[in-house]
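Cross-posting from the modeling subforum.

Setting up a comparison between two proteins and wanted a second pair of eyes on the formatting. Protein 1 (sequence, then structure tokens):
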Amino acid sequence: MNKACRTIGLISATLLIASCGIFSDEEDEALLPMELVKIDETVKIKKIWSAKLGKDSKFLLVALRPAGDGSRIYAASRDGTVTAFDPESGKQIWRTKLETELSAGPGVGEGRLAVTARDGFGIVLDAATGAEQWRADIGAESLAIPLIKNGTVIFQTIDNRLDSLSLFDGNLRWSIVQSTPALTMRGSSSPVSVGSTVFAGFDSGRIVAANIDSGVVAWEVLLSPPKGRSDLDRLSDIDGAMAVVGQDLYAGGYQGRMAAFASESGQILWNREVSSYAGVSADWNSVYTTRDNGEIVAMTRTNGNEIWRNDSLLRRDPTLPVPFQSTVVVADFEGYLHFFSAIDGEPVARERAGRDAISSDPFVIANRLYVQSDNGSISAYVVVDDRPSRDAPDVAADES
């Protein structure tokens, strides 16, 4: 979910307070984004290419971020432009103009590409050529990246509905509807899958597991029970990313909990009180999240015990921390990419993709990092190993 609007609200509130002059400088300062300090860069990051996608998406709540299938990188812009790139060089392979504003995607799989339009349509393209295959009315806007699997494309809409459409012709196969609370945040968690099961998080604080082919619900768990008396206090949306490692599912909600689940049964393996807009990412050792105040937290994947936390990005609207080789990378509202050690959370590098905000989560495939800025551009990065090379000893010569 794009967090730029929260940033605007924060800055506006700060300016209003400052103009009223009723608070001390210290209280004003506590509302401002954390200033960046110089760091000792121990990891070298290199931008290998960048490209323009289309018009910017400043201050809009959209869920547009790069995706890949192992041979190409795909990206979509708000103005309806969808582009395929060579991941090595950044060379454009094809570009399609859909003549409609987009709100989420792309999702990639089985030779197809899926995006959603702001006017409530799901659109599927051929991944090889970019040719449009079909578009179907999904009833409402979607801010979730579509999931393609088992000959279906699954869309989750902002009115708490999960629809499965045939990947080949767009016909509806099944639908799951959850109740919508009186007050919710604008956004949606993107569905994920394990085997033949799809998992979706809803504004009600519930996670639903369903069979991809039939739509039959396998289990349903309340991750974040609403608390408090007012509608605002009872917000418990699951709007951030969910993560899958092996057979385990990880999810987090706003004003609620972060938890690990057994994907086959829904059994809660562990849970922690953590409030997050961004959701959860994971590698084989750890799970990572950004708390709603901008603090980065890492926990062990097996039991949820805290490993480290870093508060250097407070109120900078950081994205979800994404594992990237030996680091986790986070983007912020000033276009910076922050790299932290996955082991202890210490900053190891910093790059600036541009002067515009980055609200979509960074995307990693193979040994490359891809970042889509709100100004409608995409950049690719690698970690550079600049250690001096050493000649291998001539063992035979030494023995002689």
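Protein 2 (same layout):
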Amino acid sequence: MLTKDLLQYKIRKGQIHPQFIEPIDSALLKIAEQLIAVFETSPNESRAILLESSKHIIDSTPGPSIVKRGLEKLLLDRTEFDTAPNEELIAFRKQLFTETSRLLSQEQFQDYADYQRKVLETIAEESRPKVAPTEVVELRAKLYADLPSSQPVLTFKTLSAERLLHRYNAAQVQGLLLHCNSLTLKLSDSMTAELRQLFKYLRFNQLLSTIRKEGELYEITVDGPLNLFYKTKRYGMNLANFFAAVLHQPRWALTADIQFRNKQPSRLSLDESCGIKPISQQFLAYIPEDIQLFQAMLRNKTDDWQIRPGSQFLPLAGDFYCFPDYQLVHKSGVETAIELFHPWHQGHLINRLNTLAEQKDVSLILGVSKELGKKPLIAEALETSAYFSQFGFTFRDVPTMRSLLPILNSLV
């Protein structure tokens, strides 16, 4: 993901235009190849050496520095560093600080250099194995060996130069979506399987959306992080990650209201003609960890119900649709679905309760985060909802069988 200082955009007449690069530009491809080569040979080197090598390429090649630094940032995102605590170094520092305290209370020093020398010499004498006086300077370096600049590279997930340039263009959009009030996505010519994949991305990133269908056109509206008051940074990252799923759709049109701090809002408008190729793999058969846990809990309690990730649209009143988190099937053939509402889904929960109050022909169980349920507006809505009293439950992290099974059994 690109930080705000690495974004390139222009604002004209209330429209914000990301400044994309050309993915087949030979000069940029060559620079990308050089940067990738540096990262490919970086395992076991320190972060400082890696950054020094990439900085050399950034400084010695033609072109805008902001683009090259953006490419570097995307490659760093694909790099894993060893950040595990170094117990040996922690013990060494403790010994050093203890000795420093003792020397300060018992001895006099000519100057700071004299004090520093005596501390390091004392530590060297007490070290096992013994450290030669000529190696005292290495102790000074060892003191800071676990700073980020000294962290060694463990792995790097490589990619092609052209794919990196496409990732750069996608990251320009994702960086803007971190400052989004709302996002509307219109889809046409999408096959059912493609749409299901898209909505799995929505649910996986815990983004609740309003889904409406007009003919063959789907319109999806998602709240942006600036429209919330709860963990907006995390939600913004989830929304930005969702854009990667949009790129798999054959025809799409996206509009988003972008607002930077102390700035007037601007409108971002994009469609498939922007030319950004997909930068991620489809979910395919991947089942998120929380669903696997939920499946295991259900199997431990009953063999009568089978659960799977949501994959079917549920039609609601007013040409709206719901894409639930889970679908459950009883051995008798009875089917139902579960839709979960997390702490930042206040507006969507109110709308869902209002819709279901007028609709009796849908089998949908509602799970509401206990943290969300503490909000006065939500608490009142849940208490007065006849639908929730019959088909609703609350949960902390994931649903539990204790609260869910009575509702499931009432459906049979």
